[in-house]
Every structure is written in C-alpha cells, then in structure tokens.
Amino acid sequence: MGEALRISGSGMQCIGAYQALPAGKPKGGIVVVQEIFGVNAHIRDIVDGLALEGYAAIAPALFDHVESDIELAYDAEGVARGRSLIGELDIDAVMLDVGSAADAIRSAGKIGVVGYCWGGTIAMLAASRLGLPAVSYYGARNVAWLHEVFSAPLQFHFGANDASIPAAAIERHRQSLPAAEIHVYPAGHGFNCDQRADFDPDNAALARQRTLAFFARHLATVP
Questions:
Q1: Beta bridge partners of 58
Q2: Distance separating alpha carbons of residues 131 and 151, to the nearest angstrom
Q3: Considering the entire predicted model, what is its pTM?
Q4: 5, 82, 20: which is closest to 51 by C-alpha?
Q5: Are 169 and 143 in contact (CB under 8 A)?
Q6: What does the alpha-carbon distance between residue 165 and residue 172 come to, in Å, rounded to a whole number?
Q7: Would you say 99 and 130 are in contact if contact means Cβ atoms under 8 Å apart?
Q8: What angle, rounded to 10 degrees, do the helices at 91-104 and 118-129 form?
Q9: Going by C-beta distance under 8 Å and a sequence separation of 6 or more, which residues neighbour residue 169?
Q10: Residue 8: what pLDDT?
Q11: What is the DSSP letter of 70?
C-alpha cells in the first residue's frame, strides 16, 4: 500500500524513503527508523501497518548517504555490513534526515518517531534533539546518550534475554529517565521482527499494543 519517494536529506543530498498514508484523515504522522539492515520488508511492513491504524508513516533510507537501496539479510554477513554502514554515518546528519522525514508528513498533524535496534537509539534522540514523542525498541546504543535532555515523551521496549542490553543498562534508563515508560519482555533482541530467530509473536503484539496506545495519547487527533 506504500510507495517509494525521495525526500531532502542532510548535506544537500536527497535520500529515498518509503511512505504509506491512511485511507482517511490521518490521526498524526510517524517516522519509522530502520534497523542496521536498511528499509527492508520488515520496516516497510511496519510503515504499512501504521497507515492501517490511521497514521501517515514514513521510513527514511538513512543508508542512502553511503549506498542506495540497501536491504540486508538477518545473518552474520548482514550484521557485519550493517555495522560498517552505520559507522560511516554522522549522527547529527542522521537526525537531520529524521527531521526531513517528519517534515515530509507534517500535514498529517502531530509527529512521533518509532525505531528498532540502531533505529531505537535514533528514535530516542528524536525526543531530545527534535522534541518528538518517541518509541524505542531494543536500542543497544542508548546508554551512551542518556545524559541528553529529553523534552518529549518516551517509551522503551527491551527483551530480558537480550545479551546486547543487560539488566544494568535497562536500570540506567530507569534512573536517567524516571518519567519514561519502560517495558521489559521475556524475549531476546529483535523480538518484534518476524524475520529474526528471536521473533516472539505474543510479546511483539503486546509491544505493538503499547506503542499504539502511546501514540494515541501523544499524537492522535479525532478525524
């Protein structure tokens, strides 16, 4: 149901994006921030699903600054390549791209951000640097940025069995962000993604329910 388009990116470079719009008047807009695997089928499914819930949704192709049309497999090679790609990106430029994606759907109303894995950390930073309500799924890089001043509501989703995010790291979130919603599930890293070995449909459904409730509170307007 979505479509590919181009949006303004950082550094005077246009980047790709995948966008889906609801059938009627949008409740608001949501920027979806990719994992390290690019704007792949999983991310496009999330965008489409948010549109079905009444939101204008868009996923900017953040790797386009390095290489266009990146879609990586959920295997060791894909992980290695994805980590290499994010190492070539400047975090400030990435935030400009997220802001540009938000501007592209600004007519939908209030804008929020949701991100997964690496994108979970980018989503968290959208709450400090862009002032946008944000939902962060299993952001293993979050701890390095918990010192920032967050001016928008935050919701976090973690897997208790995620080796990349130990219990101490989750506790750091609670201590640093006492106003944030923090949910921990008996699951591993990437439990929301049906292309990963750690996919957990029951916990993914619960996390999605909580995500939609968060956006209903902070974004949604009555059509």
A1: 19, 31
A2: 5
A3: 0.96
A4: 20
A5: yes
A6: 11
A7: yes
A8: 80
A9: 142, 143
A10: 81
A11: -
**Tokens 């409730």, residue?**
213
pLDDT truncated to tens, each residue of the chain (223 aa)?
Answer: 799 888 887 766 799 999 999 999 999 999 999 999 999 999 999 999 999 999 999 999 999 999 999 999 999 999 999 999 999 999 999 999 999 999 999 999 999 999 999 999 999 999 999 999 999 999 999 999 999 999 999 999 999 999 999 999 999 999 999 999 999 999 999 999 999 999 999 999 999 999 999 999 999 765 4
Other CB atoms within 10 A of residue 117 CB: 26
Q: How far is CA 112 from CA 13, 25, 49, 200, 215, in A?
A: 24, 17, 15, 25, 7
Rounded distance between C-alpha atoms, residue 43 and residue 19, angstroms: 11
Catalytic residue IDs: 117, 162, 189
- Count Cα neighbours of 182 within 13 Å in the Cβ-side half-sphere: 15
3-class SS of residue 220: coil
Q: Are 178 and 101 in contact, with CB atoms under 8 Å apart? A: no
Q: Following DSSP, what letter does each residue of 83-99 receive, concatenated?
A: HHHHHTS-HHHHHHHHH
